[in-house]
Every structure is written in C-alpha cells, then in structure tokens.
Amino acid sequence: MVVYHRDAKVTPCEPGVERRVLAYNEKVMMCEIHFDAGAEGYLHSHVHEQVSYVKTGEFVFTIDGESNVVKEGDSVLIPSGAEHGVLARTEGILVDVFSPMRETFV
Questions:
Q1: Across residues 15-42, what is the average pLDDT?
Q2: 83, pLDDT greater than 90
Q3: Is residue 6 part of a domain?
Q4: Is residue 100 assigned to a domain?
Q5: Which residues contact 82 (CB under 8 A, 6 or more apart)?
Q6: How far is CA 92 from the centre of its chain?
Q7: Residue 19 maps to which CATH number?
C-alpha cells in the first residue's frame, strides 16, 4: 500500500493539533501529527503500543508522571496502558506508529 501525503486526510484533534493517517493495516498504523507551538496532546491512555518519532520541533512527553524533553530525531516508546501526553514547546511534527491500528482514527 502506498499513501501519498497529499492524499492523506487532515483531522483536527485538540486545539492546534492536526493528524494525518498514513499507511496502515489491522496490525500497525502510522500517523503524522502537526502541533502548533504551545499545543497539547492531552493526557490519555490506550491499549495500543505506540512509538513516536520527532520529525521536527521540540516536545515535552509525560508518560506515567515522568516528563522528558525530546527534539528532532529523538523517539519515544509508550507501553500499552501508560497514561501519556505531550506539549509542543515549538511548532513541530511527530510521526506516531501504533500496534495494533487505532480503529477510531479511520
């Protein structure tokens, strides 16, 4: 499957946050998330394993109460069930991979 960026639907999330669902099947899903500076991905948890790659920008990730600053080129592993959220210190883009896919995103 090939998904062209230009064809990926943009979905508004929290204020200042937009998601594009990229390639996926029932076992894995990749998404690109754009954040305005100061925007937040609110604290939440889900059954999916998640890996986030910082394509651009600087973010503060909080996972189960522990916060870390990550920048372009860094990655974060979020275990199933972990409460997590993110704050964009600058405008930036995260590439998130979920396993299994997030059915609610399609």
A1: 98
A2: yes
A3: no
A4: yes
A5: 45, 63, 64
A6: 11
A7: 2.60.120.10
The rounded distance, in Å, linking the Cα atoms of 71 and 91 is 11
Structural domain that includes position 80: 14-105
Calculate mean pLDDT across residues 60-77: 98
- Structure token pair of residue 88: 């964009």
Q: If we measure between CA atoms, which residue out of 44, 68, 39, 70 comes closest to residue 55?
A: 70
The CA-based diameter of the chain, rounded to the nearest angstrom, is: 37
Token pair for 47: 């059954």
Residue 26: both structure tokens together:
């029932």
> How far is Cα 63 from Cα 21, in angstroms, rounded to an integer?
23
15's CB contacts (< 8 A; 6+ apart) are: 39
Predicted confidence band of residue 1 (pLDDT cuts 50, 70, 90): confident
Rounded mean pLDDT of 79-106?
97
